[in-house]
Amino acid sequence: MILTVTPNPSLDRTYEVPGLRRGAVLRAAGDRVEPGGKGVNVSRAVAAAGVRTAAVLPLGGPEGALLARLLGEQGIEAVGVPLAGSTRVNVTLVEPDGTLTKVNAAGPELTAPEAGALLEAVRSRSAGADWIACCGSLPRGVTPAWYAELVARAHRAGTRIALDTSGAALLAALAARPEVVKPNAEELAGAVGRPLATVGDAVKAAEELRARGAATVLASLGADGQILVSEAGTYWGHARVAAVRSNVGAGDASLAGFLAEGGNGPAALAAAVAHGAAAVGLPGSAMPVPADLDLAAVVTTADVPLDRPLGDALTGPLP
């Protein structure tokens, strides 16, 4: 069983528009509403793979009630912590060429008792969990040390942690020694404080995160594949994608595939790559089902192409 934790979940509304023009009235060709947030997406992909999962998350207002209902319809138990505020709503505009424009709401501010109740909900629901996947940004009112405290508590209970966050929250949690961290290329660059120009640079950055406490680093490099760096070795995986429809949630799908396949070694990396490649071919933040996966198209190797340049967006100055 994989338990997910999403401190700042959302309802994700996606509109397919013919083009994005400032000041114009846009008529959507299609629209959808889905449960959102990185940990929520992991639960959705895990459930689609036939693995049992539950999602711990704060819920408030009618938006929170709808989010819980949508999760239940997908076979996911929502372990909700009541909030005084309302669950946020994010909006994505998708153009025909695949260009995405996202408007992410800040979300409600959690009080100290609400943040503590979220930790307690994780503790009470973690019995029997093979993994706890802690994912996404922290809401307002919650300090960067919150994830570190969650990792420490999980370890005291004998549960493994996979962490997908960034910035100060990631750096603070490394000292608690999570079993897996899953940054994307930009987050990896931010964690080490320098731009990454090649796959080799990404490998060195992942090794630095391991030196700071992470046992395993699974890093998504976008079109340049994924790397897995652990005590057992370093591997690179990639798959060709015919067309990108939406990259929203692709990293979350990758983490779900990795954990569902055991969370260790080349086979888990191949599952991560297959899930991520399938997700980018789906609309909005839809998560892949087994029929969407093409493991035959995935290549994993210990012969990592260290000199392979990363995308231009990763070689410039850090924001």
From TrEMBL:
**Domain of life, source organism:** Bacteria
Which molecular function GO terms apply here? 1-phosphofructokinase activity
Q: Does the keyword Nucleotide-binding apply?
A: yes
List the keywords (alphabetical): ATP-binding, Kinase, Nucleotide-binding, Transferase
* Ranges where the Carbohydrate kinase PfkB domain occurs: 19-290
Q: Identify this protein by name.
A: 1-phosphofructokinase
Which EC numbers characterise this protein's activity in its record?
2.7.1.56
What organism does the record attribute this protein to?
A: Streptomyces boetiae
Q: Which family does it belong to?
A: Belongs to the carbohydrate kinase PfkB family.
Q: Does the keyword Transferase apply?
A: yes
